[in-house]
Amino acid sequence: MNKLFAKLEVENLSENERAMLQYIQENLSLIARMNLHDLASKLFVSDTIVVRFCQKLGLAGFSELKYLIKSELALEKKRHTVFREQIDQQINDFKYFLTFAPLDQLHTIVQLLCNDQPLYIHGRSLSSIPAKYLHTVLNTLNRRCILVEDLHLVKSISRTIQPGSTILITSVNVPTEIYQEVFDNSRKNQAKTILITSERTKQTEKLADYCLFSNDLPLTYNETDVNSRINMLSLVQLIIELASKELLATEQPEL
C-alpha cells in the first residue's frame, strides 16, 4: 500500500470502496490535477459518494485528500532529486579517484603481495571488510596469507616478524598513536608495510613503506563512523585483479 494511505483508516472499506482506493493509489499524479467532479466521473459515482469515501478514510473531504496527495508527490520528487544528486556525486568522486590512482605504486605493491614471503593483512571494525575480501581472494588464488583482526596480535607479530615479510593494513582513519608501533617494529625487522587509508596527510604519508589513499569522504553520524569505503574497496579490487594475473601467470606450465 502507498505510504500516503498507510496511516488512513482503510480496514472497514467495502469492496467498491477498495476499488476506488486502488484507482486513487494508481493515479496520484492525475488526481492531483482533478477537481471533485472529475474524480467522481472517473469512478462512475456521485460527488457525494467521493466525499463520504474520503470521510470514511478519516479525512475532512476531497480537498484534504488532494492536499495530502500533492504533499506526498512533492516529497517523493524531493527524495528522488536528493538521491540523484548523491549518485552523481559518487560517480564524479569515483572518476576523480580513477584519474589519480597511483598505478606505478600499485604495481610495486602487487609484486610484494605475490612473492613467497609471509603476508599479514589487518583491518578493524568496518575497515576489516576490504581486508577480509583481499585475504579471501588471495588464499583462493593459492597465495597463502594470514588475516589478523586483533590489534594486540598485529602489534605482537610486528615485534618478531621475519625480514622480507609484509604487513598490509586497511584503515579509513589511521590513529597514529595506535599503529606507529607496528610500522616502527616492521622497519626495525626489515619487513615491508603497506597502508590503504582514506585521507592523505603528511603524517600518514610517512607511516608505511607504501601508502595508498582512497580519498573517500570522511563522515560520521551520532559519533559513529559511516565513512564511505567505495574507493577503498575499488583500490583493493584493482590490487586483486593485478595480483590475479600475476599469480595465475606463475602457475601456467611452461611450453
Automatic annotation (TrEMBL):
GO terms for biological process: carbohydrate derivative metabolic process. InterPro entries: Homeodomain-like_sf, HTH_RpiR, RpiR-like, RpiR-like_SIS, SIS_dom_sf, WH-like_DNA-bd_sf. Residues 1-76 form the HTH rpiR-type domain. SUPFAM superfamilies: Homeodomain-like, SIS domain. GO terms for molecular function: carbohydrate derivative binding; DNA binding; DNA-binding transcription factor activity. It comes from the Bacteria. CDD domains: SIS_RpiR (cd05013). This is HTH rpiR-type domain-containing protein. It comes from Enterococcus pallens ATCC BAA-351.
